[in-house]
Each structure stands twice: as C-alpha cells, then as structure tokens.
Amino acid sequence: MNGAVFENVITSGLPLAIALIPILAAALVPLAGYLGDRYRNILVLAVTGLVLVLSVFLFRQVWQEGEVLSRFSVGFGELPLYMRVDHLGAVFNLISALVWFLASVFSLSYMTHESRHNRYYVFYLLTLGGCLGVFLTADLFSLFFFFEIMSVASYLLVIHTQSEEAMKAGRLYLYLGVFGGLMILSASIMIYWFTGTVELTPMLEQLVILPARALIAVLLVIGFGIKAGMVPLHIWLPKAHPVAPAPASALLSGIMIKTGAYGIARVFTVIYTPQVPDASALWAYTQQMGFILIWFGILTMFSAAFMALFQGNAKRLLAYSSVSQMGYILMGIGAAAYLGFEGPMAFGGFTLHVVNHAFFKAGMFMMVGAVYFRTGEIELSRLGGLWREFPVTTVVFLFAAMGIAGIPLLNGYTSKVLLHHAIVEAYELHDSYALYLAERIFMLTGAMTTCYVARLFSSIFLGKKPDGLKAKGKEPLNEKLVFIAIGAAILFIGTNPFFVLTELVGPVTGAFPFDEYRFNYLMKTDFWDIHDLQGMAGIVAVAAVLFVAGTRTGLFTRKLPGWLSIEYLVYQPLVRILMLIYTRSGRLLELSVDSVYIQSPRLLTYYCISGRVLENIVDSSYIQSPRLISYYCISGKILDSAAEAIIVGSLKPLREFSHRVNALEKGGPVFGRTLKMISSALELTYSTWLNFINLFFIQSKIIFLSAFYFLFDMDYSFRGKFFKIVNTSNFEYYVLILFVSLIIILLMQFIL
pTM of the predicted model, to two decimals? Predict the structure, then answer.
C-alpha cells in the first residue's frame, strides 16, 4: 500500500458485510430484548444464520475465482480498510460462522438458567464480527482493528456471571489480550516504518536486512501466541473456560483461539517467506524460526496434556485439552516454516486440524455444558452413569472423544496422520536428532490425549451414578440437532479423508507456492497405510496402560503440587527479577544523588571559577560598550527619521479623507436619509440577533428541564408497555454508549 490513498476497489462486498452485519446488529439486541426474549433470540439466530449463508457464498466465490478483494478508503489515516480473502481465510471464516450458528442454537436452551441475556447477546454478536473480520483482512492494521474488537467484546463473555472467580479470570484475560494487541500493533508499526506497507504479502527480502527482523517476529508471535494459548502464554485459558457460559467456552476454545493460530500462520507462511520461493536462499532464516516454533508447539501439546490428566473439573480439563491441541496446530505451522518450499504436508496438516478441532472441541464444551445445565455438577468425582439420561449426548461425545484421540474413522485421525508425516519429513530433512525427539514426544502426547478423554467420558457417562445426582428433564430438541450435526461432521471427515483431502486441503494448500512434487505427494497420502495404523494402535495401547494404572492407583485424582505451574516456575520468578532490577536501579540512583551532594563543595569551586571567567568576559564587554553605544545611537537616529517621515507624510492623505467625508455629509437630505436608514437597519439586525440568542437559550433550558423531569417521572411511574420499553432505568448505559459511539464512528468514516 505504501501509504497511498486508494479509491474503493470492490470485487465483492461480502467480506465487509460478513464482518459488519453482526457488529451493527448488536446495537438492536437491547431493543429486541425489551420487546421480549423471543424477539431477541430470533434476531440472534437470523444474524448468525445470515452470516453463515454469506460465508457459504464467499467460500464458493473464492473456490471459483481464487481470491476476493475489497478495499475501502476508510481505515487508519492514509491506510484503507483492506480485505482480501484467499482459500485459507475462506476456510477459517466458514468454519467459524458454522460453529457460531450451532452455538447460537445451543444457547436457546442453555442460557435460560443464566441472567443478563441482553448483554450476553450484544457482546456475543460483537465478538462474532471481530473474529470473522480477522480472517477476512489483508493487512496488519485492519487485522489489529478486528482483533481488538474481538478481544474486548469477548471479555464480557468471560465475566458474564460476575462472580469473584469470573472477574479475576476476566481481568487476566483482558490484560493479556490488551498486551497481545499492543505487541501486534508495535510490530505492525515497525514493519510499516521500514517497508512502507503492512499488507499480508511475502516480504522476507525487505525484513531480512533489518536489524529488528527478529524483534518483529517475536512481537508478532507473542501477540498472536497469547490468543492461541501457546505455552507459556496460555495462563488465561484454564481460568477463563470454567467460569464462562458453555456456549462462550465452546467459541473461546473452538474458534477464537484460532485467530491466534491464523495470525501466526500468516506470519510464517506469508510475511516471512520470499517473493521467489523456488529459488531463494532466504528460506534458511524462516527455517530457523520454524525450528523454534516446532518446539514451542511440542512443549505446548505435551505440558497441557500432562496437566489435563490431573484435572477434576470437566471444563478445566477441556481447557487444558484446547491448549494441547493448539500445540499440534503450532507444531504444524512451525514444520511448514521449517520445510519452507517443501512444506505442503505440514501446511495441509495444520489446516485440517484447525477444522477438526473446531468441531470436536466446540462440541465437547457444549455437551459438558448441557450436562452441567441439567445436573448442576461439573466435578468429575460427582458425575457418572448419565448415559441413560443423555443418550444422544453420550454417543456424540464418544465420537468427539475418539476424534480428538485420533482413532481411525473419526476426523482427528486424518489431520494427525498429516501432522505426523510432516514432523517426520522435518526430521529427515537434516537428520536432526532434536526433531526425532520431537516426533517421539508427539506420539507420547497422543497417548496422554487418549487417556484423559477416556477418563472424561467414563467419569461423566459410565460407571455408577452417585447418590443424589439427578438430571432435570430430557434432552431438548435444539441440543439434539446441534450435537447430531457436530457428530455427523466428525464422522464424515473421518470416513471420507480422500474427499476432504481433494476438495478442501488440496485447494487451500495449492493456493500457496509450494514445490509441485511435494504437493502431489501430499495429495497421494494413504491414510490407511499399515505403519500409520500400527502407530495409532501403539498409542491406544500406551493410553490403556496409563488409564488403568492411573485409575486403580488414584493417581489422576491427586492434586499436583502448587509449584508445578507456569505461574510458579516462570511468571513469579520473572516478577521477582523485575522487582530486583527496579529496587537495585532505585538504590543506584539514590547513591548517585548522595554522591552529588557529597561532592557539592568541589562542584561549588568549579562554579566559582566559571563565574570568575564569566565576569571577565562581561568586563571586556563593558570596555567595548562605547563603540556599541555609538552603533546603537546611529541606528536609533535612522529609525527616528523614518518614523517621523511616515507620520508627517500620513497627515496629507488623512486631511484629504476628512474633506471628502465632510463633502458627503453636505450632500443633501437624500444622502443623509440613506445613511440614517442604513444605520437603523444595522441597529435593528443587531438587536434582533441578540433577542434570538436570548430566546434560544431560554427555550433550550425549558426543553431540557422538561425532558429531564419527563424521564425522571418515567423512571418512577408505571404507564404501560411503551414506557416500560423506553424507561431509562431499563437500559444498560455503558452498552448503549459503546454501540452508539461505534456506529457513529463507522458512519462518519463512510460519509466523510
């Protein structure tokens, strides 16, 4: 973009419509809610359904044309709001819209036991608009704009219950979200400063010569890594999920953390790639960053899976599971960067795992939420034997659990096969023992994943039902429909891997400039290869041993020591180090000040010497003063003569002007009356204007007081349905102010 102002170039208005419709519709939720819960629910379903339909059309348009572009002159200063949707963005957008619509249907029954419905749905739609906007933008500034909308709006979803635990988790979520946004913004400004553009295009040639190239990459990874739940930046996730409503948890885990993965994918597979990928030696730099990201992914998947084994709260267990699954995706992105031009296997693997994870993890959160909604229990030790009360939920949960474990014929198996092939290719590229070790940890993490999902499923649905555990009512129809749709998607992807590879993974991967031979190798992947099936059988066997040993010994019910956490091992020592640096620097400053005071006599001596030198200079100036005074007097005399000539010369024109005015005054009665009429007209105009101003302020005061007392009376008197709707006490002002301001800003940018 290079800082230039572009005219609107619109290939399609769909990207902007998909992002803005939920944001603008959020302002209508309070009004619809005060008319009735039914009207509000219809509005939310209509908006999310419309967004899903538009996303389907956008997906088809991208598959047919290859890319959809929209550029608008509104935006950040001279930088326009730039939206460009390729195959990867279209997939992320469609999956997000689909899961969001399913969560909306699920919310119809789940949210009945929650309060503050209007506020929930306002920020529910705002978060949707921000999330989809991230996937549809084509530059870092526009991405940052939607990223911040999503982060701030989703904060209200996390603290929805407003309990002490929810507020604490919400503050951590908000602080880290704002910090991550500042990291992204800082990196974006640096990129724009050095390259003159913030477009999501290959720019490794420009970045690699910069001294700050590594700093830019680190800032972007930290910013997006916080949202993605990358270890050690994941600490908000296990705290936010247990306190948020189940539909919000499903979206936080299934969709919103994907915005972080999407950002990291754009950094390493677009920004830090060369413009000529097939003949560039610059891949070595991207390869180094990819190696580091692989290990961050391995650390994330393994540590979070280990923590999930020991969780007694079902939602917290799923939260750690989400972190672990994001480790698989980050490892795939790192492998794609490490393999570079030869990385289509890794690229296809993490893309497919994003799709799979959206289904099985969002579904599991909603199903656990359904159990909590009808039993009031979320602790595994107080659950069990619920398969009779939840037959549909039990079957679909089993499908989701087997999918996340990577069991053949379920969706997770397909993406994990591709990811495993990718890490093996990365190991074989340089015969790296470190990556061989990473592959072994990958397999061990798969066994741990199978173990904790087996424990979760058996603890909720199998075994003996605890005394006093009762389920209220039967599974509502909307829940059944949502769960059946999720189960069908999990089963379809798992039983049709070649169709998914050809119709989804192939087009997305083929849109990027990878090596043709490696791309064809990806498209010929045999998912039923005996080695892959044997590997999966080995994972299940190890998981079975872990499950039996942990269950019989009660190992998984024991609490982990307090020191075994990222907060204790990383953040608390970091805070202590920062405090030590701060106190030591303060002490150093204090000693410096003391030293200055102690050395003050010497400084005073230097001051006296410098004063004596200054005095000598002044004396010398006084000696030369007669000559300076002479120059001053001459210049003053010249100035005096010039002023006198001007004043004296001005008397003649002034005298002539006076004579002419006198002649006009004696010009007769007609001229005199004309002057008098003009004077009277000016006086009348002036007095009329003063009277108008006075009347305006008097009437404004009357109108303001009348409106104030009218609204005041409405707050404390019941006058029918209309007054109940517009009664000021019914409005949550901060919600209205936020949306009115947002709509005004958007309209002003388009109009002005």
Answer: 0.76
